[in-house]
Amino acid sequence: MTERELDAAGITDPALREAYRHCRRLNARHGRTYFLATRLLPVERRPAVHALYGFARWADDIVDALGTGADTARRVAELAALERELVKGLRDGESAEPVVRALADTARRHRIDHAHFADFMTAMRSDLVVTDYADYAALRRYMHGSAAVIGLQMLPVLGTVTDRETAAPHAAALGVAFQLTNFLRDVGEDLDRGRVYLPADLLAAHGVDRERLRWSRDTGRRDPRITSALRAFERLTRGVYRQAAPGLAMLEPVSRPCIRTAFVLYGGILDAVAEDGYAVLHRRSVVPRRRRAVVAADGLARVAAARLRARSDAARRPDGVPLPGTGPVEPRMVEEVA
C-alpha cells in the first residue's frame, strides 16, 4: 500500500521513498486518529501529509522526552541540531535526516511557505523552557507555531475551492482546536512532564492552581473546582471548533472526508472527556471503537461520493481523463480507520 502511495505521488528516488516511509511510521505510531483519517485522502496526497506530521512528531518527541537537568541540555542540543538540518534541507532540498529530507521535498512540491516551519521550531524551543501560560492570549501565541501553522502547511496539500487566503484562518483554527483537545485529554500526562497548558487565569477563576492539579493527580481524588475549570476549557475548545468548521467546505471535495473525519473524531474526544466526568487527571478518555467505526463509515461514504462526482465531472471534460484521487475506494478502509 505504501508503495502505491509513493508511486501515485511521483516519488521515485529510493532514498527519498525510504524517507517518506520513515515519516509514515512516525505518524502511525504517534497519531492514530489523524493517521487513520489520512487513509481517506487520495493516495497521491498521503505521503506529503505523512511528511508534515512525521516531522512534527519527531520534533515533539525531542521536546517531550525531557527528564533530568542533564537530559534537558541534551534535548536542547538535539532540537538545535534538527533546526540547523531543517534550514539546510529547505535551502538545498537534501538532508541526511529522513524526516527533513521528506519535509523539504514536500515543501518544494507544494510550495509551502518556509516561514511556517520556522514558526513551528520557535514553538518547540519555547516548550523546552516554558511550563505554563498566564492567560489564553499567551497560550494562543504559543499555539500559532505549535498548531496553527500545521493547518496552514496542510492547505496546499489538501487544495481549496476558494482562494487560499480565505481558507487559511479556518485551517489555522482547526490546528488549534486539535491541540486544545489534546491539552484537555492529556492534562495529567503533561503535568507529569512539568507542564500546564490550561491558562492560569482560567484555572484561578475556578479556584484552581498547579498545586491543586498536582494534589489531584497524586492522590487520585476529585475536586469540583477542577471539574469546573476543565469544563470551561472544554467550552473554550468547542468555540475554536466552530471557528474552524466553515473551512471544511472550502477544501477540495476529495480532501473533505479526511478532514471532516478528523474533525468529528477529535470533537468526539471532547465528548469522551465530558462523559468520563472530566477525569483527565487520572485516566485518558478515549472515543469508543463503535463510535469511531460509525464516523469511519460516514467518511468512507463521503469519499465514494466525492470520487464519483469527480469522475462524472472528468467524463464531461474534453480529454475525458479522470482527475487524481478519483479512483476506486480501497477495501477494508472502514476497519482500518475505526
TrEMBL record:
Keyword presence, Transferase: yes
Keywords, alphabetical: Transferase
Enzyme Commission number, as recorded: 2.5.1.-
Region called Disordered, residue ranges: 314-338
GO molecular function: transferase activity
InterPro entries named among the record's database cross-references: Isoprenoid_synthase_dom_sf, Squ/phyt_synthse, Squalene/phytoene_synthase_CS, Trans_IPPS_bact-type, Trans_IPPS_HH
Pfam families given in the database record: SQS_PSY
Pathway linked to the protein: Carotenoid biosynthesis; phytoene biosynthesis
Name of the protein in question: Phytoene/squalene synthase family protein
CDD domains the UniProt entry points to: Trans_IPPS_HH (cd00683)
